[in-house]
Design a protein that fits this description.
single chain; alpha/beta; 6 strands; 20% helix; 23% strand; elongated
Amino acid sequence: YSMKRPSKRYGTVPGLKIQRQHRLILAIDTSGSVPSADLEAIGAELYALWKTGVRFTILEFDQYIQGSYPYKGRLPEHFSGGGGTDFSEVLEFANQRNDCDGLVIFTDGYGPTPLNLCRVPILWLISRRGLDRDSGLFQQLPGRKQKLQNG
């Protein structure tokens, strides 16, 4: 309950303070070009965000979405996938969800540039071994892009 004084108008105490939790979709590229060391590095960052109250839906994808599940504090030991990379199904999944605030895509960036638009904000986390900032493919990715220094 809040610590405010009772309302002069209604004579009641204000109700509960509700803090909205952010809900994000974290799409993890599990194609053959992403090394397992990069996937382990994202796990530590994901745990730190989860402890602050952010709720994640994890998508494992390569050419297709391999799995979707809520994040409960740990990533699985093994990921599905290992084929090529295609981002279009991930963007379609985010467009169909009405309960997400944003889409975070962890990838090396090697894949065709998505042609369909996304209704939610996108953050591309490009691994250290992924696309260079100066490459044309990096510039063509829609949304905000960040090249990771570690991992």
